[in-house]
Structure formats: structure tokens, C-alpha cells
Amino acid sequence: MTNQEAVSGAEINAAIAELRAFLSELADRGAITADGSVTDPGAVVTAVQAEPGRLRALTRAVAGGAREAVLSAVQGGVAAMVTALVRTM
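Given the sequence above, the corresponding C-alpha cells read:
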């Protein structure tokens, strides 16, 4: 069994929804553009680190080996950046 098999489809969907909501908030704050380009990398890092419990579903999915599954649904440099940041938490 691979780690990704240990993460259920429902858990991956929860991680994707959580990431999309987070990216929407970052766009509202001006840290990223509507297309997902990072305009303020420091603000993205700070937002992830300021609320470590905020991205629980995403953290579990990444830790379980489902990072690529999440990134296949939510593409863009900022999504890769956020998943990399939660991996270190």
C-alpha cells in the first residue's frame, strides 16, 4: 500500500476544498492574483504559518502522500508553494 492509498478520496476532496478557500482569501488580500500568481510571497508564507491548524485537511493529505493528487486539481505556483509549506509544519 502506498501512502496515497492511505488517504481517502473524501480526505483529498476536503484538502482541495480547503486549499481553494485559502487561495481565495489570499486573492482577496492581494497576496496572489486571480490566476494564482504570487504577488507577495512573504504574505503567503505568513498566512500559512500564522494559523497552523487552519489547513489541517491539506496537511493530512500532503503527509499521507497525496500532494500530487491535490495539485492535479488545484494547479498553479501558489498551490505548490502552500503544499510545500504545510509539508514542513
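The chain has one domain: 3-87. Try to locate this feature in the C-alpha cell string yourself.
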